[in-house]
TrEMBL record:
<feature type="binding site">
    <location>
        <position position="317"/>
    </location>
    <ligand>
        <name>substrate</name>
    </ligand>
</feature>
<dbReference type="InterPro" id="IPR049704">
    <property type="entry name" value="Aminotrans_3_PPA_site"/>
</dbReference>
<keyword id="KW-0808">Transferase</keyword>
<keyword id="KW-0032">Aminotransferase</keyword>
<keyword id="KW-0949">S-adenosyl-L-methionine</keyword>
<feature type="binding site">
    <location>
        <begin position="119"/>
        <end position="120"/>
    </location>
    <ligand>
        <name>pyridoxal 5'-phosphate</name>
    </ligand>
</feature>
<feature type="binding site">
    <location>
        <position position="152"/>
    </location>
    <ligand>
        <name>substrate</name>
    </ligand>
</feature>
<feature type="modified residue" description="N6-(pyridoxal phosphate)lysine">
    <location>
        <position position="284"/>
    </location>
</feature>
<keyword id="KW-0963">Cytoplasm</keyword>
<comment type="similarity">
    <text>Belongs to the class-III pyridoxal-phosphate-dependent aminotransferase family. BioA subfamily.</text>
</comment>
<feature type="site" description="Participates in the substrate recognition with KAPA and in a stacking interaction with the adenine ring of SAM">
    <location>
        <position position="16"/>
    </location>
</feature>
<dbReference type="InterPro" id="IPR005815">
    <property type="entry name" value="BioA"/>
</dbReference>
<dbReference type="GO" id="GO:0004015">
    <property type="term" value="F:adenosylmethionine-8-amino-7-oxononanoate transaminase activity"/>
</dbReference>
<dbReference type="InterPro" id="IPR005814">
    <property type="entry name" value="Aminotrans_3"/>
</dbReference>
<feature type="binding site">
    <location>
        <begin position="318"/>
        <end position="319"/>
    </location>
    <ligand>
        <name>pyridoxal 5'-phosphate</name>
    </ligand>
</feature>
<comment type="function">
    <text>Catalyzes the transfer of the alpha-amino group from S-adenosyl-L-methionine (SAM) to 7-keto-8-aminopelargonic acid (KAPA) to form 7,8-diaminopelargonic acid (DAPA). It is the only aminotransferase known to utilize SAM as an amino donor.</text>
</comment>
<feature type="binding site">
    <location>
        <position position="255"/>
    </location>
    <ligand>
        <name>pyridoxal 5'-phosphate</name>
    </ligand>
</feature>
Amino acid sequence: MSSLIERDRASLWHPYAPASGTLPLWEVEAADGVALRLRDEDGRTHEVLDAMSSWWSVIHGYRHPVLDAAVQRQLGSFSHVMFGGLTHQPAVDLAETLLSLAPQEQGRQLERVFLADSGSVSVEVALKLAVQFQTASGRPQRQRFLTVRGGYHGDTFAAMGVCDPVDGMHSAFPGLLAGNVFAPRPPAAATATPAAIGEWRTSVETLAREHSNELAAIIVEPVLQGAGGMFIYPPECVRILREVADAHGLLLILDEIATGFGRTGELFAANHAGVVPDILCVGKALTGGYMTLAATLCTGEVARVVSSGDAGALLHGPTFMGNPLACAVANASLGLLRDGDWRADVDRVGAGLAEGLTTALELDGVRDVRIIGAVGVIELADAVDVAAVTRAAIERGVWIRPFRNLVYTMPPYISSTSQIRTITAGMVAAVSAAADRLEARV
């Protein structure tokens, strides 16, 4: 009888991979806390620590009793109802909680929540909101977006259009992606000087001024760019974008799908800058990794203007919008953050990452090591051999998923100090082993 991995290769298509199934696969047999039990293609079992939080979402770990119980309770009532014309307590509770946690300031408050299926969809909704806002404000020509190089906002078409135009997927879809306006990537946080930030500000202000009549909004990931390069930049740059948006009648959209809910050391990365956006996108860790759910939050002004426009509504409506199971577990996940000591957990994880990953700077081929909150990155000079580094890490009890020239971790917040030591040691050893193999082949 064929193994599960063989059956997978015959029928499934995995993300960012060819259908031929040439990349290594591991079967997940169990997950609990920070640990995964994997079976490889030779039938061997590996006990590993999940250093990825399942693409940055499982912040409380697997099989958390509070989250399990929330799903089970909701199953006892109803698992799904349409959200058109109906409502339910999990959705209302979630909206109220999100608004209470979101960045706020006098004169600009996030007051409305649109519940979406995934992060990419929440970005699509944000972009639609911005265009509908400008149209309802008498500026229908404003349909483009200003962003920065190095960003990533999702894989659907409008979201791809505001991802990095060179390192993103623009070349695969010529003529289909919107032509947006790209400012230079902000200077790196670790090396930024006032002069460099000033020069960057000038370039952003110039682009905004030149294109103001056609721009609807500015969209960025605040402080930390995720899948575009795990790049950390100064909070001051987010404040500059807020000022530029206000100066030219643009909305500011902050994509906190990867950075929200404590990952960077603040509940939202916008808090590093003391900035409140007009539109905020959240997802990933929202449900603690249990179910797919995202949200787009906007100010009362945005909601009122869009609702008063000719369309009379936000033109979007996912079938599974406001799914009660997802909302119930999201409420439980946010409750764990609100009632626990997430900041101390993130500080502990971050300190362990800094201690353990710094040694990678001694390795040949390592360009940089950077840490923010519960995020640790080893940047290499050349592209990563994903298969080799992944195998080497698994041999050392760690699951990672490198990309481009980056070997990185975003571990669950519940990871202990000893578990973080295992993760960092595994990452450094995997980078070293992969470099040794490459040198041996040369």
